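User: Design a sequence. Structure:
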């Protein structure tokens, strides 16, 4: 899996994921467990939907 989630995108995904999972764990609605998805994609740096849409938020490498 080539990383396709970078920088600010990663921070936003992790923040949203943690917030949703915490809300669910503290008695929020069951749908809030969907926060596991952005949390996982933020931590791994790979979003399986991005290649389907032709997107990539990682900075371009200059070798």
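Assistant: Done.
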């Amino acid at each position: 899996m080539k990383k396709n989630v970078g920088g600010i995108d990663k921070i936003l995904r992790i923040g949203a994921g943690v917030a949703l999972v915490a809300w669910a764990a503290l008695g929020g609605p069951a749908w809030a467990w969907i926060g596991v998805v952005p949390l996982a994609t933020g931590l791994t740096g790979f979003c399986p939907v991005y290649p389907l849409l032709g997107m990539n938020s990682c900075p371009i490498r200059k070798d």
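The mean pLDDT is 92. Residues 6 and 62 are 16 Å apart (CA to CA).
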